[in-house]
Structures are given as structure tokens and as C-alpha cells.
Amino acid sequence: MRRQGFIGLDVAKDTFTAAFLVVDALSGVIQQSHVATFSYDRPGWQRFLATWDTFQADFWWVGLEASGPYSALLEAHLLRGPRPHLSLHRLSPLQVRDFARARSRRRTKTDRLDAYTIALFLRQPLTVQALPAPLQDHTPLRALAHLDPHRAPERTRTQNQVRQLLHFLFPELERAYPRFPKALRALLRHFPSAHAIAQAPLPDLQALLPSRHTLNLEALQALARASFGLHDPIRAQTLQLLLERWAFLETLRARCLAALQQAARAHHPQAWRLLLAIPGIGPRLAALFLALTGPLDRFPDRKALIAYAGLDITLHQSGRLAGRCRLSKRGDPLLRHVLYLIATALKRYTRRFAQAFAYYRHQGRAVRETLVILSRKALGMLDPLLRHQVPFQDLPQPAPV
Question: What is the pTM for the complete model shown?
Fold first, then answer.
């Protein structure tokens, strides 16, 4: 007699609750059920495995809700464990919640009940076929990819603080150098005001700059001597500290990007080469895309990948009432941002996407709306290329007249 096992896991910070179900595969009758709570440490994990061994099943379905960092360690242990007959799935909390409401209108909510509900959700014959693809251990790349954007708001905030201080210490400088080149930042770390730059000997200023720079020190000193800014020791010291933070954030961002590119190239060598062969896609975009999507064979089709990115269309319609078509935006916002950048690059460097951009703009679409449409088209194009390892083919150049 063939038996299937289902385990629902409800994960908290310090504990996790497991609901075990053993079901007859033919009749669907639950033959065994047990719910227990374990500590989130090695002794608790050993107790969980020992409890698991008391049940006998030909195949196990294990499911847990997406709960951020709390479930990551448990997922890794399950993926790297010695149990071959196992299919692990990360479930949408919205689907599990709707399933629980369909079963009962009672508002009771406990960890044991949540774990049992997840196990029952896995048991349903319809939902078992519609489960998300089994998890694969690609989440470390995704975590590394999210380090770079997390630095961007902090870097922007630091740049704004620098501009605010310079408005007091040297207000003319931002108009002359709006992008603050590295050479200028190195100069301001030692002479953080118009007064300091105006009084400094020219050889001292030249000694701080690299051999290749575009700063005109004579013009800069002339601008400093005529500046409306004032010298304030406290503000000048604050500016120096902010410039040090700016340099540190740029160094950290470069290290994160280098580590991400190296990891993406090692984990997805063939996809890496195919992406870099597409005009406009460089190492940064290729690494971010591969880290955020993972292996594309974990998606059953192109529609699932588009829905994963949150670029699928939603429509609310009832009778004569029809709402507007909108993007679901339920996927990773960073992945949508990367696809937007890819679409922008493809529009610039490929004839295929340049023509598509011109077509939608001729229809009256806004630039941003058109690039969002191209983002969806770019993802739909990349899916078969990487899945079947086919190189990108652009439209041929028009024949000369």
C-alpha cells in the first residue's frame, strides 16, 4: 500500500512547529497525524528528525510559509539533509490563509493550528499539483544581490548631507561640480571649506590629487576666494566625516558587486556567457538577474516566471463593471528594477527593442510605461534563451539603399 507523507512547518524566531500527516495515496484517508513544537537549535532539530523517523511514507511533501530570514536556516537543513524522497515548497501566506478561511470561519490562530493547516494544504489533490516548484539552494545569491541596493539609500542620504553642508561652507562648488568627482572629494577631506581651499598653498592641493584628474586648481582657488560661504570648524569636521563615509560606502558597494559577479559566474556559467553576449547587458545586470531569478527550470513556464517578477496583469471585472488592467507587483521589486534597466539597455543597443520602443511610443504610451512593457518582453525573451541555451539574435540591419 502506497502512503504519502505531508509535513507542515510553522516557523517562529526561537521555535518551529511541525504537523505530520500520513495519508493513503489511493483513498486519501489520513492514517496518522501528529503535531509537535521544537526548539530552533540543534537539539530541537535532532528531536524533529527523530519524530519524523517514527512515520513511514513512500514520499514526503514538506511545506512552510515564506517568513523571511527565520525560515532560511530550516530550509537549508532540509535541502542538504540525507532524505532523497522529499519535495520542499515555500508557500504563499495569502494562499494558506485563504485555504484556512475556506475550511473554517473561526478566528482561532495558534502555531499548532497553522502547521496543521499547511499540512492539509499540501494534502489537497488539487493544490499538490499547483504547488510552487520545489526549493533549490540559490537563496545565498539572492541575499548577496540585495546588499547592493541596500547601500544605495544610505549613499544617497550621505550625498545629500554633503550638499547641505557645502551650501554653508562653499555654496558655489556644487554648481561648478554637480557630480562631485573623486579628486574633488579627496581635496575636501583635507580642506573642507572655501576658506581652507583659498588659504592653502597650491602645491599642497596638488599633492592630494592623483596624477590624472580634471580639476583646475587655479580656477578652484579663485572660486573659493570669491565664495559667499563661511568657515565653521564644526561643520567642516562633519563634512570630513561624511566624505569618509561616502568613500567607505563606495568601496563596500564595489566589493559586493565583485563578489556577486564571481558567484553568479560560478553558479550559472552557461547563462552568464549567454547574457553577456546580448548587447547592452553587462556583468552587473547579468549577475543581478541570475541571482534574483535562480535557475529558470524551477519555473514551469514563462507565465510563472513573469508572475514571479510581479509583471503579470491583474483585472477586476464583474458584470458590466471592468476595472483597469494593472501589474500585480507581487514579486521582488529589485528584480523589476533590474528588468527595467535591462529593457533600457536593450532599447538603446538592439534594433529589436528599439523598434518596439518606437512602436509603443507612436501609440501614445509614456516613456516609463513603454519601458515597463519592454521589461516584460525582455523577461519573456530571456526565458527561452537561457532555458534552452540559445544565443540572442537581433533583427538584421536594413539593406543599404
Answer: 0.74
Separation of alpha carbons 297 and 133, rounded Å: 9
Other CB atoms within 10 A of residue 21 CB: 23
Task: Give all strands (DSSP E) within 66-169, no chain letters.
Answer: 86-91
The predicted-structure confidence for 248-260, as pLDDT tens digits, reads as follows 999 998 999 999 9
Mean pLDDT value across residues 138-148: 78
| Angle, alpha carbons 238-151-183 (nearest 5°) | 55
Give the list of residues 6+ apart from residue 298 with CB closer than 8 angstroms, or none.
Answer: 133, 134, 136
Could you give the C-alpha distances from 96 to 32, 66, 104, 231, 373, in angstroms and in order?
Answer: 22, 11, 12, 62, 31
Residue type at 75?
E
Contacts of 68 (CB under 8 A, 6+ apart): none
Per-residue CA distances from 237 to 161, 169, 209, 231, 233 (Å): 13, 11, 20, 11, 6
